[in-house]
Amino acid sequence: MFKDITIGQYYPADSLIHKLDPRVKFVGTLIYIISLFVFHTWGYVLGTVFLFSVIRLSKVPLGFMLRGLKAIWILLIFTMVLNLFLTQGTVVWQFGILHITREGIGTAAKMGIRLVYLIIGCSIMTLTTTPNKLTDAMESLFRPLRKVHVPVHEIAMMMSIALRFIPILMEETDKIKKAQMARGADFESGNVIQRVKAMVPILVPLFVSAFRRANDLALAMEARCYHGGDGRTQMRPLVYQSRDLAAYAVLLAYLAAAIVLRAVLHW
Amino acid sequence: MSIRLDHVTYTYSPGTAYEMHALKDVSLELPDGHFIGIIGHTGSGKSTLIQHLNGLMRPTSGHVYFNDEDIWGEKYDRRNLRFHVGLVFQYPEYQLFETDVITDVCFGPKNQGLSEEDRMKRAEEALRQVGVDESLFRKSPFELSGGQKRRVAIAGVLAMNPDVLVLDEPTAGLDPMGRDEILGTVAGLQKQRGITVVLVSHSMEDVAEYVDQLIVMNHGEKAFDAPPREVFSHYKELEKMGLAAPQMTYIMHALKERGLDVDVHATTIEEAEESILHALGRK
Ligand SMILES: Nc1ncnc2c1ncn2[C@@H]1O[C@H](COP(=O)(O)OP(=O)(O)O)[C@@H](O)[C@H]1O
Ligand SMILES: [Mg+2]
Description:
The complex is a heterodimer. By secondary structure, chain A is mainly α. Chain A has eleven helices and two strands; from the N terminus they run H-H-H-H-H-E-E-H-H-H-H-H-H.
């Protein structure tokens, strides 16, 4: 179940990208996304080279990166088709009211590349960083927002708990579903109403167990004197190493190159 | 009604970093009317194995036959198979969902398409056989104690009148008394109904007393498949697999080593007592 969603699926490997500070990877992903919208035409060559270099460095098989695309391919095709037929400009092909323009082809291609690269870029981050490290990074990066009373720590804690529980609850759903199937439950046939009704034997035990787990966790946290973020320190605080600073430098150079390409050369 | 596994292999998440060969080339036969024990350390593939028996899992390679029919054959009705091979999962109490006990037990028979009247008859019979008191029939399953919930869940499978009853660690998390009660109930059921029972456990003491055939799993492979006394005589190998023979086996072997002519195959306290008394010439 949900096997195709790579986002949130850590791929363990011993690589430079895996070792980077999660904050670098978070910022890097943002910079990469920004660069995708800066590029106009030939700039995408730079984006491609950068993307594939990082993939090589990460030692994650390309297949895993592409798996994330399965979740969005309908959106991808939809976007490209709309752009292809609805863009005004020099007509190169016409059939009734349908027409394709030179500009349409360009926009469709650009949109397609942007979407694909965006998903792959995010997949690199989630495949090389454990969800817990990612929430640590966000907590650390958004800490300044506490000044304006955003409960940064609490949000990060909720996120890491949710992330921790997603696989557990998915496994539980699978187990309950099988247990009911063993009693002859049928989830596949029938009309919509019958199918929704067939979910009750799964949902009731699932909620009961989710509440039980939440209760246990709250108790365990209280037993260890958890009282929110104030004054709380970390067992493994995030500390920048020299390789992280080097990575920031590379990222800045990349962003600068992207902007120069666009602003000066109009690529 | 026999079940046969033919060179069954099962791999979780094949082709990923999390690939896990949970079953490796397992072949076995579960003959009619027997009481069969499956035993192995945690993670040895017991739960994976039994989910193949009623078609909840599909072998990565190999075949599963029920009455000599391949259950993954093209037109095979696996939903119907599940009424014949009743599977009780580990911690089955987590699958209860109805507002009262008896309606929950009726879920299986209802899926079989039985009439209201027949369902109730089946449910009442099953509940009585597992020792749930009539006064609890109309209570919410969530109000019951852990042991009672488990009985209700077992009744939920039993009410389908399966020919084969498979139980995955039915005693997990119960106190010694609850454990003995559940095992006694299951053994009683097997005799009373004459059905095949497959009992999964990681404790030799659980199964030693009851089973006719004992299958030992080790790292996804079938290590032994024989009557229990024969398996226990390999107690040194069992230890290497993180298992232990029943305590009596150790005592009898120790006595034999010290020169007392006892039967080393005795596994229960009663058998041991008789054999020791006999050896001492008191009988
Ligand atoms: N859903 C799953 N996904 C991946 N691996 C699993 C899954 N379920 C079990 N495993 C693995 O398969 C092996 C056998 O598990 P299981 O059949 O549950 O063993 P047992 O019931 O004997 O404890 C274990 O190593 C376990 O980690
Ligand atoms: Mg198990």
